[in-house]
Amino acid sequence: MKEFPNQMLLTNKNPNKGLIVTLCHNDPEVIEQFREACFDNLDRSLNWFHQCNTAGYQMFEFWAGMERLPEIQESCEHIAAMIGMELEIAI
After folding, report:
1. Which pairing describes strands 7-11 and 19-24: parallel, antiparallel, or unpaired?
2. Which among 34, 44, 50, 57 has most CB atoms closer than 10 A?
């Protein structure tokens, strides 16, 4: 699954990963906003794990299973709105 700059993506199409939300962005400030918004707003019951942490890319993987997709998607849409982005979905 190819990711594009300035894209927030919720997907289960990455090899060897479960359900993930990623942000690939050219602006390190937006990356930091996303990271902090995830830490502050993703419910721990979704069993998320912060996988990647760079100035241009962040990834959070959910170990909650696809049955929790509606909750995960709602949380990710909320975070996208908080940082002024749209959530792309590839499930």
Report:
1. antiparallel
2. 34
In a domain, 1, yes or no: no
**Is 57 domain-assigned?**
yes
CATH number for the domain harbouring residue 36: 3.30.70
Is 86 inside any structural domain?
Answer: yes
Per-residue pLDDT of the chain (91 residues; tens, 9 = 90+): 556 689 999 999 988 888 999 999 999 999 999 999 999 999 999 999 999 899 999 999 999 889 999 999 999 999 999 999 999 999 9
How far does the chain reach from its first CA to its final CA, in angstroms? 11
In this prediction the pTM is 0.92
Cα–Cα distance measured from residue 7 to residue 16, given in angstroms and rounded to the nearest whole number: 21
Which of the 8 DSSP states describes residue 45? G
User: Which residues lie across from 19 on neighbouring strands?
Assistant: 62
Could you tell me the residue range of the domain that residue 15 belongs to? 7-90
